[in-house]
Amino acid sequence: MSFWKKLFGGGAANDSQPGVPKVLGEDSYKGFTIRAIEMKAGSEFQLCGEIEKEVDGEVQVKQFIRADKLSSETQVSEAAINKGKQIIDEQGDAVFNGGGW
């Protein structure tokens, strides 16, 4: 790639794609996939994640956001995975039945 394309934005500056959230961590748990999603809140990270499972041949995804703010990607990733496990333990497949929590 030429110098000019890089200088004026013709080349990819990083691997992230606009509009696609950065996944900080992922774990499988009881048939579900839990992902910790990056959500910056100033200089901290807000606890954010998603729970995914294939139900009746269709992939279902439920996002969750909590008020907790942590100082590192590692901390928020661990906390989001643990919160996802707690939600699964409490609700199981019912997590996808609409309704908020």
Could you give a quick summary of the protein structure above?
The chain contains two helices and five strands; from the N terminus they run αβββββα.
Query: What's the overall average pLDDT, rounded?
Result: 85
- Give the topology string: H per helix, E per strand: HEEEEEH
Q: Are there runs of 5+ residues with pLDDT below 50, and where?
A: 1-14
**Overall tally of domains:** 1
Main structural class: alpha+beta
Q: What is the CATH C-level name?
A: Alpha Beta
Number of strands: 5
Termini gap: 48 Å
- Radius of gyration, Cα only, in angstroms? 17 Å
* Largest beta-sheet characterization: 5 strands, antiparallel
Percent of residues in helices comes to 10-25%
CATH topology type: Double Stranded RNA Binding Domain
CATH architecture: 2-Layer Sandwich
Give me some keywords for this one.
101 residues; alpha+beta; Double Stranded RNA Binding Domain; 5-stranded antiparallel β-sheet; 5 strands; disordered N terminus
Q: Any chance you could write out the topology, listing elements then pairs?
A:
Blueprint: H1 3-7, E1 23-29, E2 32-37, E3 40-41, E4 44-55, E5 58-70, H2 73-91
Antiparallel strand pairs: 1-2, 2-4, 3-4, 4-5
Describe this structure as you would to a colleague:
The protein is an alpha+beta fold and 101 residues long. It has a single domain (17-94), classed as 2-Layer Sandwich (Double Stranded RNA Binding Domain). The chain has helices spanning 3-7, 73-91, and strands at residues 23-29, 32-37, 40-41, 44-55, 58-70. Strands 1, 2, 3, 4 and 5 form a five-stranded antiparallel sheet that branches. β3 and β4 (44-55) form a beta hairpin.
